[in-house]
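Hey L., structure's done. Input below.
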Amino acid sequence: MATILKVTERSGTVKVNGMDISMIPTEELRRWLVTIPQTPVILPGSVRFNMSLLNSASDEEIVAALQKAQLWNIVSARGGLNGSMSGLDLSYGQQQLFSLARAMLRTGRILLLDEAMSSVDFKTEELMHSIIQEHFQGFTVISIAHRLRACMSYDMCIVLSKGSILEIGRPSELLELRGKFWELWKSQS
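Output:
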C-alpha cells in the first residue's frame, strides 16, 4: 500500500501527497475519500440504486464489483440489479462485502475503514483484505481497527489511547518494541 499520508504531531497538520489538507477545498477533499463504516449503510430501494447512488457506474461495473465481492450469485438469484435490497436478506458480513463492492465503484485517493471488519468472520475478513490489497493499490488506506491481524500488512500503525498517540511505526517494528502494540497483539493471540 502506498504511504502518502503524513501526520505531523507537533503542528497538528495532516498532509496527503505532500499537501496540507487544510489548504485543499472541502469538496475536493471529499472526492478523495472513499469510506466503509463499521455499520453497513443499506438504503431502501434496488441493488442498482444502493451500488451507484449517483448513477455513475454502469451495470457491467456494478456486476464486476459484486462478483469480486462474491455476492453476484445471491443478487442475480434474487432479482438482479433491479431487485430490492430487502429481498437479498444479506448477513452482516455480506452487507460489509456489499459496502466494499460499492466502494470499488468510487474514485478517490484515500480509503477510510472505520472498524469495517470488526464483526465479520475470518473468511470474510480475509476476502475483504484481499480485495482491498488488489483493488485499492495506490490509495492511502486508513484503517481504524481493534483486530491487529488486520494491521500487519500496512506500512504504518499508530497506536492510540484516550486520544493520545502511544506508538508509531511499522507493525513488525512495534512488535519488536514490546510496548502497547505488542501487549494488544499478545492479548489477541
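Residues 1-5 have pLDDT under 50 and may be disordered. The helical segments are 26-32, 47-51, 59-68, 72-77, 92-104, 122-135, 171-177, 180-188.

-- N.
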